[in-house]
Amino acid sequence: MSTFFARVLPAILIAAGVGVSGWFVGQGLESFRQAERFITIKGLAEQDVKSDFAIWNLTFRRAGSEYQEVRQELANDRQAVVDFLVSQGFEPDEIETRSMRITDLLAREFGQQDVALRYTGEGSVVVRSARVDLVDSVASNIDPLIEQGVPMSQDGFAGGAPRYFLRGFNDVKPLLLQEAVNNAREQADKFAADAGAQLGALRRADQGIIRILDDDGSDGYTSGMTIGKRLRVVSTFEYLLK
């Protein structure tokens, strides 16, 4: 081989290698661009529904110097609450009486020894009912209990108010998700038309999380205080473009 070819051949091979590599890189980028021909759309759906179950905790408290006195007062209060609920139309299987709790303040390890009243006690009656309208109505009119001298407590999570829940969630879930699908499809069709493309098959779908909110917008710690509920879901869909 001449000296000329010995010098030129390596340069030719390097150039050919770069060209082939460039061709493959170009093909890879083209495939990547084609694979990107899809759009991501979020479908929103909301629906107003009514709670179908209520839990109402009626709590009362007493304090006194004598244990038996406090115990008897709590027992009388508990019976007064039960009688009131029955008079308002609740059935026995909707009413649950809880055991009373009495605390001896002087018996506590780090308690003060100069307390005015040695014993404090608490009792409660819980209503569990699917008749949410009845619960709501009675909970708004407990004056007769107060007039009888029953010391109703407003402490606790709900401040003595009922909490409302949706147990039939699975009955309305399919309709809500279908609405989210329809909403996303409508947006995707419009986007494809505006882009001068045709909408292809569904590439991927993510249902998202269905949230149950009070109809006043409350969520988290304060939720459960209203009979009306709002279901909300944001689902994510990917559609291919033709």
Q: β content, as a range?
A: 25-35%
Overall CATH class of the largest domain: Alpha Beta
Flag low-confidence runs.
Answer: 11-16, 18-33
Oligomer: single chain
Secondary structure: helix percent: 25-40%
Distance between the termini: 56 Å
Helix/strand/pairing category: alpha+beta
Number of helices: 5
The string of secondary-structure elements, in order, is: HEEHEEEHHEHEEE
Mean pLDDT: 84
Radius of gyration: 35 Å
Shape by Cα distribution: elongated
* Strand elements, count: 9
CATH fold node name of the largest domain: Alpha-Beta Plaits
Fourth-level CATH superfamily of the largest domain: Protein of unknown function (DUF541), domain 2
Number of domains: 2
Named at the architecture level, the CATH assignment of the largest domain is 2-Layer Sandwich
Q: Characterize the main sheet.
A: 5 strands, antiparallel
Walk me through what this model shows.
There is one protein chain. This protein starts with a helix and ends with a strand. The model is unreliable at 11-16 and 18-33 (pLDDT under 50). Helix content is 38%, strand content 30%. The chain is an alpha+beta fold. Strands 2, 3, 4, 5 and 6 form a 5-stranded antiparallel beta sheet that branches. Strands 1, 7, 8 and 9 form a 4-stranded antiparallel beta sheet that branches. It has 5 helices and 9 strands.
